[in-house]
Amino acid sequence: MKGLITWFVRNPVASNLMMILILVGGLFGSQDMGKEVFPAVPVNYISITMPYPGAGPREVEEQIVIRIEEAIYNLDGVKHITSQARQGRGSVTVEVDTAFDMNKMLNDIKSRVDSIISFPVDAERPIVMEEIIREEVIRVALYGDASEAVLKEYGERIRDDLSTLSSVDYVELKGVRQSQIAIELSEVDMRRYGISFDSVVNAIRRTSINLPAGTIRADTGDIQIQTRGQAYFEDDFKNIAVSSRADGTEIKISDIAEVTDTFEERNFLTRFNGNPAVFLGISVSSSSPDVVATTSAVKDYIDSQTGYLPSKLQIATWADFSVMFSGRLQLLSSNALGGLVLVFVVLMLFLRPQLAFWVALGIAIAYMGALWILPSLGLTLNMLSMFSFLLILGIIVDDAIVVGESIYRHQQEGYDRQAAAQLGAQAISKPVVLAVVSTMIVFLPMLFLPGIWPKMLWGIPAVTLVSLSFSLIESLFILPSHLAQMKPESKPKSHLGLRFYHLRQWFADGMMSFAKNSYEPFLVKALDWRYLTLVGFVLAFILSITLVGSGYIKQRFMPTVSSDIMQLKINMPDGFSKERKLEIIKRAERAVDMLATDTEIAQQITTDKLTNNQ
User: Where does residue 50 rank: exposed (0-12), middle (13-18), buried (19+ CB within 10 A)?
Assistant: First the structure.
């Protein structure tokens, strides 16, 4: 260590090249670093969903959920199984052990579920898929006095347009029901023509289908032959022939049934600002996320490319998480700048302005070094990594302050510039290294903890370890080389400079007086009464543990933080009528309007209101 310090002090070009390399690398790294609200963490969950139309929760549990659980519970790699049975649908979520391959587990679970032969006949096919958590950064609301079909039509068009944006990874259309063709048979007409229910079902299955019919090989080429009879629209189903008579007349579905193009029967309602609405959830790109660029692209699209919407429809953005991200980034920037200014001012008053400049620059070098390395580790700039930068701000600056003060003290003792830089940095190198390493040891185990939460919090130890490493490099190799170039301080000649010089001397003399007259006698007594001092620290440690154990200092896994969004959740019994639900929802909307009329509350309401009942 002493040899490296001496070499860098005697070779200032090397230290300057290292500093420039770190700054340039950090500049390019910050451009490549992804930006997201929370880190994207792959989850080891596999979901099994199976619709059972018309069945109640008890029937779904007994005939769907329990049978799936019994089929998969003994698979190797299954950690936990969570199930839910609700009206017309059952779902089972499997947490897979991190040591097992997800693709193999997905195939094994699919095989087990597909082998179940005791599912109800009316149940639909099970859907087995790996859960993928996408980070939704903004929502687009399309609302107005329009029918559900119109909202869905324009919502799908907006979804397709937004999906083509390079910064958008996924767009999900929410608040809509699946389209379906409803065929309501007339019992009277079926009896009149002598047609059974099975005849209608078989006619649809036989006719509404696309089938390959072979290939005709010719000298000019092959011709693929297909029969295309798949029915997609209302008129297609109406024209399906159920039976034909001897005179050549056909009985079509339209003769015995009413065919309507409608939506699936679900107790589902979505409203925005008191109007029917659909929502589009926009997620950032998983490969190179940039929450600010994504939200800006979405807003630009809404402002410039939605002129085709009819006048009765309106479009707005909601739940913009880029505001939260920009606020945290601004907090980080202001705190870093404030730290630089504070360090510079304090060191300038007690030591020297030139020394204060190089020490303050050490904060920027450590941060830029972290921004250079972290993208290669797969880390993004998010709420947790920015919190880490704020957390270590005070630790980073301590190294440079201690080394800078030691070098300054050796200069004051009469050593020449290079000797003072070498001796000052070498004298303090062991305590600085031990202090940094001890801090690293505290954060190092967090890199190897199992589970989902440690993966999400992985950025905190990563940022801390990388930043402290560059802080150590800067304070022991770069800073001494720069301070070795400082010329002896001369007394200024200008009146303003002279006044500032005397002000600095007054601060420096005051600090030395406090150290000599107050701190040193206290330190001597503490060392003389070392056992009493040790007992005092032990008692303080016991007191801190007691405060936590007694509950005086509360313990909570996640802090309670006020949100920008107010939610109202109303639980209603199964089978509650849609009309009653709508009545309760409108009552809640009227209550929100009444709150908005209160001048004190209205000043705090900055977002639109959302009512979503499913």
Answer: buried
Residue 323 one-letter amino acid:
V
Name the residue among 145, 167, 142, 147 with its Cα closest to residue 157.
Answer: 142
- The 10 Å Cβ neighbour count of residue 260 is 12
Give every CB contact of residue 568 below 8 A, 6+ residues apart in sequence.
Answer: 588
Q: Which residues contact 586 (CB under 8 A, 6 or more apart)?
A: 274
Cβ contact 290:284 at 8 Å: yes
How many residues would you count in the chain?
614
User: Which residue has tokens 């040899």?
Assistant: 3
What SS3 class is residue 227? strand
Please state the three-class secondary structure of 431-498 as a single string: HHHHHHHHHHHHHHHHHHCCCHHHHHCCHHHHHHHHHHHHHHHHHHHHHHHHHCCCCCCCCCCCHHHH
Q: Which residues have a Cβ under 8 Å from the Cβ of 50 and sit 6 or more positions away?
A: 64, 68, 89, 90, 91, 119, 123, 124, 125, 126, 127
User: Residue 90: exposed, middle, or buried by beta-carbon count in 10 A (0-12, 13-18, 19+)?
Assistant: buried
Q: ∠ CA 356-357-363 to the nearest 5 degrees?
A: 95
Q: In whole angstroms, give the CA distance from residue 163 to residue 155.
A: 12
- Among left, alpha and beta (phi > 0; psi -120 to 50; other), residue 531 is alpha
Other beta carbons less than 10 A from residue 444's beta carbon: 13
Two tokens, residue 257: 């049934």
CA dihedral 577, 578, 584, 586 (to 10 degrees): -160
As given in the structure block, the two tokens for residue 234 are 């209302």
Of 91, 66, 69, which is closest to residue 80 (Cα–Cα)? Answer: 69
Q: In whole angstroms, what is the distance from residue 367 CA to residue 376 CA?
A: 15
pLDDT value, residue 603: 61
Burial of 182: CB neighbours in 10 Å, binned 0-12, 13-18, 19+: middle
Question: Is beta strand 275-284 parallel, antiparallel or unpaired with respect to 269-272?
Answer: antiparallel
Residues pairing with 92 in the sheet: 48, 83
Cα-based torsion angle of the residue sequence 523, 528, 529, 530 in order, rounded to the nearest 10 degrees: 80
Q: What whole-number distance in Å separates Cα of residue 348 and Cα of residue 355?
A: 7
Q: What is the distance between the alpha carbons of residues 436 and 396, in angstroms, rounded to a whole number?
A: 9
Residue recorded with tokens 């290669």: 376
291 backbone dihedrals φ, ψ, rounded to 5°: -65, -35
From the number of C-beta atoms within 10 Å of its C-beta (0-12, 13-18, 19+), residue 43 rates as middle
Q: Please name the residues in contact with 144: beta carbons below 8 A apart, sequence gap of 6 or more.
A: 151, 275, 276, 277, 312, 313, 314
Give the span between the Cα atoms of 293 and 613, in whole angstroms. Answer: 31
Buried b / exposed e along 391-430 (16+ C-beta atoms within 10 A): ebbebbbebbbbbbbbbbbbbeeebebbebbbbbbbebbe
Helix (H) / strand (E) element for 515: namely: none
Mean pLDDT for each 10-residue chunk of the chain (614 residues)?
Answer: 82 88 90 79 86 86 92 89 89 87 89 90 88 83 88 91 86 86 87 86 83 78 79 85 80 88 78 86 77 87 88 87 81 78 80 80 86 85 82 79 84 82 86 88 85 78 90 88 79 76 82 87 91 93 89 74 73 77 82 73 52 38
